[in-house]
Amino acid sequence: MAMAAAIEDRLNTLFNPERLILKDESAQHSSHYNDPDAPEITHLRIRIVSDKFKGMSRIARHRAVNEALGPEFADGLHALAIEAAAPDEPTRW
User: Fold this and answer.
1) What pTM value is reported for the model?
2) What parts of the chain have a pLDDT lower than 50?
3) Which domains does the chain have, with CATH numbers?
């Protein structure tokens, strides 16, 4: 799980979240991502709560997380679902 550890470390460093959940959803999509050289994670859901998101629009939050994971996209991360919130905002999880 080297990729998951790298993602978690980077998000913790950049966003100092009070809550961070990484959910690997790659197995649910294996039928349409049939690449023998596929990385260990191709589809990921990130749930993150951070003070850094205060005052940011939903799009700005998503852009910030996407930019943070640029190396993983270059290494084969294919899809990312982001659920980002500031600490004072309600979450579905």
Assistant:
1) 0.85
2) none
3) 2-85 (3.30.300.90)
